[in-house]
Structure to design on (397 residues):
């Protein structure tokens, strides 16, 4: 496709990744963000192999890999159950690992990729609306308007002012904190480790490498709770939480002890839903602005990266904008639908107030998951390629 002028709402992971891909393809790209200086929000996350493939293609993987921590195993135990109830190995082969990092490290990698590709990032512009087609303008909170664009991409996340998505709120969320990785700690540094009390409580530790600029290796510590429990958690002494978390998982004490104050933990609550059609004339929604799910399968950032790459590929392969947007939607529809469905099915097994579902998980599903071909299927599910992530496929780096 000939050179387009493209405006992107949101300088998050998805917005910067698609900006890098499109600028590298020769389009004129401007990214608007509400913050005075664009910055990441959140704690740790895992980029799966299909997401790493996108990072490689936009020139961000080397930086991300240098800061992050490769993980090859996801292991979870339930209180009182000897054998693991979550045991996923990524499997042999090049690129078959997760890349765990702090959001700041991933943001740095994709921001640099977008900047070097020639995308312009404009801070202090809170997007509140978009004008009608054919050529669209972004509208800002202070009354200003952007220039006209051939295409507007809504990558402004769960708080999007442009997306009509009305998701269903999920009952459980989590608090996340970042601590120094204790070098003498008992947990492997290539593993996401979790401990459950039925499905109502979960504590986890994720090695996430280093922050941009170097320094000590870090771990993300997370604890599941409801919004009501968050209020109680904030009013109780932090020592009370550390004691409760350590009782549930004594091995995690060296990591939990790194949290010294409530302010060092960030709450995150989730929702579930997808737009039936994320494409309008001259406007497309990607990432959390188009589809949201629990992070239980570790696919949130992956999906945003895949959306961005699929959109860039559709624009590269079609001469007409409307045809390209239609191609984009078709290329992602099946993969998104499948992972949204699996997220909806798996989440209550690990985060819910049910007493029946965790018993079913521990006594039936966990033993079945150890019988071939289940381990290989679970590995591909986590890697993000149980189904082809794009209609034409996307090879791992």
């Amino acid at each position: 496709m000939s050179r387009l002028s493209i405006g992107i709402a949101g300088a998050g992971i998805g917005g910067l990744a698609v900006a890098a891909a499109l600028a590298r393809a020769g389009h004129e790209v401007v990214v608007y963000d509400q913050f005075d200086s664009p910055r990441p929000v959140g704690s740790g996350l895992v980029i799966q192999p299909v997401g790493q493939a996108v990072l490689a293609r936009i020139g961000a993987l080397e930086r991300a890999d240098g800061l992050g921590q490769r993980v090859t195993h996801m292991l979870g135990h339930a209180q009182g159950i000897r054998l693991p109830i979550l045991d996923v190995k990524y499997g042999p082969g090049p690129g078959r690992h997760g890349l765990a990092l702090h959001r700041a490290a991933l943001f740095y990698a994709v921001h640099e990729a977008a900047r070097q590709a020639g995308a312009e990032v404009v801070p202090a512009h809170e997007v509140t609306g978009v004008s009608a087609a054919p050529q669209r303008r972004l509208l800002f909170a202070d009354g200003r308007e952007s220039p006209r664009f051939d295409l507007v991409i809504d990558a402004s996340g769960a708080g999007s002012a442009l997306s009509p998505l009305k998701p269903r709120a999920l009952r459980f969320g989590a608090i996340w904190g970042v601590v120094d990785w204790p070098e003498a700690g008992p947990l492997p540094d290539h593993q996401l480790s979790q401990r459950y009390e039925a499905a109502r409580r979960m504590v986890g530790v994720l090695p996430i490498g280093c922050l941009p600029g170097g320094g000590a290796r870090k771990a993300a510590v997370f604890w599941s709770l409801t919004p009501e429990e968050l209020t109680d958690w904030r009013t109780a002494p932090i020592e009370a939480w550390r004691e409760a978390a350590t009782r549930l998982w004594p091995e995690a004490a060296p990591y939990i002890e790194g949290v010294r104050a409530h302010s060092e933990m960030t709450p995150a609550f989730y929702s579930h839903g997808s737009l039936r059609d994320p494409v309008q004339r001259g406007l497309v929604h990607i990432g959390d602005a188009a589809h949201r799910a629990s992070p239980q399968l570790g696919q949130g950032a992956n999906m945003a990266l895949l959306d961005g790459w699929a959109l860039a590929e559709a624009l590269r392969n079609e001469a007409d904008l409307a045809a390209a947007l239609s191609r984009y939607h078709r290329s992602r529809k099946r993969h998104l639908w499948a992972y949204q469905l699996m997220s909806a099915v798996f989440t209550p097994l690990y985060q819910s107030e049910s007493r029946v579902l965790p018993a079913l998980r521990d006594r039936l599903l966990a033993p079945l998951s150890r019988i071939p071909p289940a381990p290989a299927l679970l590995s591909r599910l986590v890697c993000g390629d149980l189904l082809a992530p794009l209609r034409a496929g996307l090879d791992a780096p």
User: Anything to note?
Assistant: The two ends are 26 Å apart (CA to CA). The mean pLDDT is 94. DSSP finds eleven helices and 19 strands in the chain. The first helix runs from residue 13 to 24.
